[in-house]
Structure prediction request, 361 residues.
Amino acid sequence: MLYFLNGLADGGDLYNLFRYITFRAGGAFFTALLFGFIFGQPLINLLRRKQGKGQPIREDGPESHILEKAGTPTMGGVLILGAILVSTLLWARLDNGYVWMVLFVTYSFGAIGFWDDYLKVSKQNHKGVSGKIRLAIGFVIAAIAGYWVMQMQSDDLSGYLAFPMLKNTLLYLGFLYIPFVMIVIVGAANAVNFTDGLDGLAVMPVMIAAGSFGIIAYLIGRTDFSEYLEVHYVAGTGELTVFVAALIGGGLGFLWYNAPPAAVFMGDTGSLALGGALGAIAVATKHEIVLAIIGGLFVVELLSVVIQVLYYKKTGKRIFLMAPIHHHFEKRGWGESQIVIRFWIISLILALVGLATLKIR
Prediction:
């Protein structure tokens, strides 16, 4: 919205700053952060009044959770989503299709998560929305996003899959690209959802991954940088940097209240939305494979659940003491903060490896 103020610019005056993505990204970051600080505590107070007993705690989980986390309200993802929405609408170019596509995916998955959280809290059980329904709706949302992206991208990129570190290699998938996008976005959403099990565990890796993709979006959205790095230029994706900055600002505002001991959980409302956002940005920037590197922590968390379930069905035994894998380490005696900080470090390392693929060609 504020971008259009650059039309009032007369040379090098203040209005001219609004044409620059970096300036508006900074504005989006601080707006979202301020939003989190202003509305965080009132939202937590409201959730406590409405939810009563808060998020149901798994009885088969670590014993400490039953004692320490009982009564903590959930749906705190609403705070992040509110911060992102206000900041993006205020600072991003609203004539950019990629911005609207990512917003569509983010808030659609957020709506699924909100529905799931509401059922869990109102019924005080862990079932919520059935997994099949969640997946079905998620795949429909992702299919729409995939088709949307194909319509926005140029003919030499639409329907193609790019490979990291191979500068001129593209694989044409045609309309098979849409099922691929469905797997990427739904997989990312559920991977972040599984990761969200300890105070602060999911939100920081999400911010690290988002920051990495903000850099990627900015670089491949400019002809000069994309030519220098020998990566595919995708016109318009640079504007996603503003969305990413809003996400990071909103995430930090939420982390203020989610830091151990958490005053609020993001719930599926936040985790599904943020995971979906990461998947959508990866699709928009044609860095879907790089998402598996940068978001490697989420991949491991998701795989730990899949492997545990499949192995248990086949043998009746468990590979991990508990899945997702962060609970396995809890069962082995690791402290919650120890797990969270070590997983943050792993996320940062993987992000740097993923960004290195921009230069290694």
Notes: The first strand starts at residue 160 and ends at 162.
